[in-house]
Amino acid sequence: MKRFKSVVSVMAASAMLLGTIAGCGGNASGNDTGAEASTEASAGSESAGGVFKIGAIGPLTGGAAAYGNAVCNAAELAVEEINAAGGINGYQVEYSKEDDELNAEKSVNAYNTLKDWGMQVLVGSTTSACSIAVSEYTKEDNMFQLTPSGSAVDCVKYDNAFRVCFSDPNQGIASAQYIDAHSLATKVGIIYDSSDVYSTGIYQKFTEESAGKSYEIVSAEAFTQDNNTDFSVQLQKAKDAGADLVFLPIYYKDASLILTQANTMGYAPTFFGVDGLDGILTVDNFDTALAEGVMLLTPFAADATDDLTVNFVNSYKEKYGEVPNQFAADAYDAVYIIKAAIESKGVTPDMSVSDICEALKSAMTEIEASGLTSQKMTWDASGEPNKEPKAVVIKDGAYVSAD
Question: How far apart are the first and last CA of the chain?
C-alpha cells in the first residue's frame, strides 16, 4: 500500500489570519455558532459546490469545562486557519460544537444534534466515557470519529474511531517509565478514582509497569465521585508510608483539593499526574502556588520555541485570552489530521458520510503527521497513535518543559 505523507502544519501567515466563525465562549448549545459558521462558510465556497461539515463535542460547562472549551476553541481556530488558507481540497469547512456537560447521555444527544445539522466528521467526544457512548452511534452511522482526548481503551474499539492522545494504558506505562528513568522517587503513593474508567485504567497499567522499577509503591488508595471532598485518609496513608511522590491519575478538580489538603497537613511530596491534571491552574478559588512543582505527562508544552507552537500559542492567547493546554493542542492537531486524511484520499463534500468514513479509515493508516503534540504521528487500524511522550512541570504558575 502506498504511503502518503502529510504534514500537519500552519503557514506563518495563517497564524495571523482569523476567519469568520463565531467564538465558542458564551454559547453552550453551539447552535448559534454553527448557524453563523454555516452562513459565512457557505458563501465562501458556493462555487466549489459544497462544504465539509466538522462537529465537536465536549463539556463546555460544569466541572470539566476547561477540557471542553479548550477542544472547542482550538478546533475552531484550526478551521479558521484552514478556511483562510483556501480550505480542504478547495472546499471551505463549516464547524459547530455541542456541550455534553461531561454526561454520556447528553453527549449522545449532542451527537444527534450535530448529525441533524449535517455533520460529516466528528472531533470528539472530549472525555472517555462520553466518547465511548457516542462511538456506539458513529459506528452505526459509519461516521469517522477522531477523539482528541478520549483516552480509555474502548474509545477506539470500533474501526471508524481513532484518537490523537495517548490511551490510558500508555499513559500509565509511560508515567512509570518516566518516574523511573528520571529517578523522581524511591517510594510512590497513588490516589485514584475507582469510579472512573479513565483513572482506573491508568492506575492499573502504572502498577503493572512499576514492577521491578527503582521505586516502590507503598500506598494505593481509591476514592469515588460520591466521596471526593475529603482526601485526608488517602494522604495520611501515603505520608505515613514515606511516599516522596504521589501519583495522581485523576482530573484536575479533585487534584486541586488533594494539593490543598496536603498543604494543610504539612505533606509536600512531588505530585505527578497525567493529562487529566491539565487545567489545575484554572480551578476557581484554588491557590495556584500550591501547584508549584507539580509534574504531568502531556504531549504539549506551551513554552516550546518551535514556530508551530509559538504561532499557535500566540493566536490562541489573542483570540481566547488564555494560554492553551494540551487538550487544545490535541484538538488543533485533530482538525489538521482530518485535513491531511481528506486530502490524501481526494475526499469531496458531496460524498456520503459512510464513503467519507471509509476513505478516512484507510488514510489514517497511511499518513504521517507532524503537529503540536508530536513531530511524528502515525496510526494503525487499532486507532492508536504512535508518538513520543513528554512531561511538563508547573513553574511560576505556568507549564514548562520538564525535559
Answer: 37
How many Å is the maximal CA-CA distance in the chain? 70
State the Cα torsion 132-136-139-140 to the nearest 10°. -170
Compute the Cα dihedral for 288, 291, 293, 297 and give only its sign: negative
pLDDT band at 39 (very low <50, low <70, confident <90, very high): very low
* Tally of CB atoms within 10 A around 20: 15
Q: What is the pLDDT of residue 233?
A: 98
Helix, strand, or coil (residue 35): helix
The helix/strand/coil state of 385 is strand
Return the CATH fold of 12-166+304-388. Answer: Rossmann fold (3.40.50)
* Main-chain phi, psi angles of 388, to 5 degrees: -85, 140
* 270-273/295-297 β-pairing: parallel
Q: How confident is the model at residue 11 (pLDDT cuts 50, 70, 90)?
A: very low
Taking alpha carbons only, the member of 69, 65, 87, 67 closest to residue 78 is 87
Contact yes or no for 168/273 (Cβ under 8 A): no
CATH 3.40.50.2300 describes domain 169-298? yes
3-state secondary structure of 303: coil
Mean pLDDT of 85-108: 98
As annotated, the residues of the chain forming the CATH 3.40.50.2300 domain(s) are: 12-166+304-388, 169-298
* Cβ(71)–Cβ(56) below 8 Å: yes
What pLDDT, in 10s, does the model give residues 342-380? 999 999 999 999 999 999 999 999 999 999 999 999 999
Helix (H) or strand (E) holding 188: strand 187-193
Average pLDDT, integer, range 287-295: 97
